[in-house]
Amino acid sequence: MSNFTEAVARRAGVDVAEAAAVLEHHRVRESGVLPRPHRLALTSIEFSGTKAGKFTDDFRFSWRLSDGLWCLAGDNLKGKSTVLEVIWWCLRGKNKRLQDTARRWISHVRLEGHIDGEPFSVEFQHKDGVPTGRLETGKTIPKIDFAGEAEFASVMSQFMMNRLNLEILRGWHSDVKGEEDGKATVTDWALFSHALICRNRNAEVLLGETSENGSVVSLLQMFIGLPWTSTRRDAETALKTVRQQQRGEKRRATEDTQARASSLQQLKDEITAAEAALANTGAAPALEDQALAIEQAAAHVASCAGRHATAVQVHLTVQQNYTELHQTLVEDRKRLRDLKENTAAKRYFGALAPTCCPRCTTPVADLAQARGDQAADHCSVCGSAPPEDAPEDTTAIDQLSENIASLAAADDQTRTALRRAEKERKEAEAQLDAARRAMAAAQAALPDASVLRRQLDLERLRGALKEREATHARAGGTTPPAPEEKILEAAYKEADVRAGKASKPIMDRVSSEIFDLAVRLGYDNLQGVKLQANGPMKLQLDDGPSWFQKVTEGEQLRLRMATLLALLRVGQQHGGRHPGLFLIDSAGAQEMIPTDLAETLQQLRAICEETDGLQIIAATANRELARTVIPDDRAKIAEAGAFMW
């Protein structure tokens, strides 16, 4: 286990394994070594379309870029800001700051660039407000198509978060300002991309579009690289989520208690009335005893049914055996009778000497004459030779008689067994009938419907009273923090202590860098800057202390530029991950005098030369100063009254 988990376990008073399980379940990440920043640079921007209205005409803007300072110069409202907003549109997948008129005119956009030398391009057609195109990222990686703003934004967010190695930050969004309830949120490229652009606008936000929900803190954390702040945010978000769940449960319990509190006495009165009504019905048998009697009767019925089934089966088997044995005995007796009759008939008819045919009464002598010269020893009727005299054989009759005697004895035994099986079957039937009558009697002994209903109603009322009294006790009492809440609270406090110790020297360095850069950008009366880790910027001016929100708009613009540049310069040394691309809109606006603007552009150019991989694209309305400070091959300058595209 890490020393952070061990420290959390000590704070919460739990074992290390339990603390580790809770932190893992809520995805509380420990601060680690942040990866190096990745460099984003643009190599070209091109867009075209057709203007409509007063200036109807086809247009095409194309610009090749590289590292360093680049400048757009021309009159106001002539398209400088549109170029920056189109670039930002390509990088984010959406841009609501782009003017509707320009958005309707543009039909085709292509942006090319590279991240750490690996090229990428974004190209899309824009028709009826719907961008349709693709993202290409090298020869070996498949192209990613998109259709619609939502899909475009999703593609660019995933690409930038992955290639720039930015991590999603968790946070908490309050439903109502000042209230505890809210929901967990995540910070991704939609917010981080605000660190690429500095606009001239009337706003009091140092970074991004809004100061709500910790957006400024998220930008500082990601692009400066403040240790342990991700861990603190994770723990804080998880802790607020758990506490909100607990508040919801207690709130529901309290509301439920309040809703039922007035009915407690009424419920008690109903119980009293139900008890009296049950007493008036007389002494009813206990429902439990009757249920037990029915259960026992049912078991006896089942036992008797089993014995009856066995007796029936035995009776059927014995009856079948008896039937088969008796049939064999009858058949053998018939065979014996036939055998005896054949023997007697043979003996009887063999002794006869007929004088005429028994069928036609023809004299035997005539029959013999009709046959011709037959031997005298042949039968005069059928003509066959008489059988040889042989002693009579009685063996078959004797054997058959012995078998019949054995079968007769077995028949008597089987008949006796059959009578016994039939008796047992009838006894089993009688026992089964008696068991069934006993079960019917037990069922009939149950309380009648009215008594049973009153008993059930009484038990239901008692259960409802018990539940409501328990709800009152839960709502009125205090619940000690659950181990999960204690562990998350300990994690938040431990990460907060570590973040405070680690962030202070870094924030001091950032504040010093902002001060130096703001002075270089023309903020002459600035004497000191103190940027706090939670977002506010305190200033020390010639005439006393102030805050970022209190100074003029021109001074705010200088401070924004200085802060963005400081994010990059200091972040390079502390794990910050600013990609090194800045879009500065109207760098010479507000109350800057020409000498201030010239100094600002010169300092931006010098800062680019001092910082490896830095690319700044600035827009200004002062063409002459742009020509003086910016080389011709690094400037797009529109003459007086002319459009940038």
State the major sheet.
Answer: 6 strands, antiparallel
State which percent range the strand residues make up.
15-25%
Mean pLDDT: 82
- How does the helix and strand content classify structurally? alpha/beta
Put the structure in a nutshell:
The protein is α/β, with parallel strands linked by helices and 645 residues long. It has 17 helices and 16 strands.
How would you explain this protein's 3D organization?
The chain has 645 residues and is an alpha/beta fold. The protein is 55% helix and 15% strand. It is built from 17 helices and 16 strands. The chain has helices at residues 3-12, 16-25, 80-92, 100-105, 149-163, 189-192, 215-225, 229-261, 264-280, 287-350, 364-371, 395-444, 449-476, 483-520, 553-574, 594-610, 623-629; strands at residues 40-51, 57-64, 68-73, 106-115, 118-127, 130-136, 144-147, 169-174, 182-187, 197-198, 526-531, 537-541, 544-547, 581-584, 615-620, 635-637. The strands form four sheets. The protein has a six-stranded antiparallel β-sheet with strand order 2-1-4-5-6-7. It is elongated and about 170 Å long.
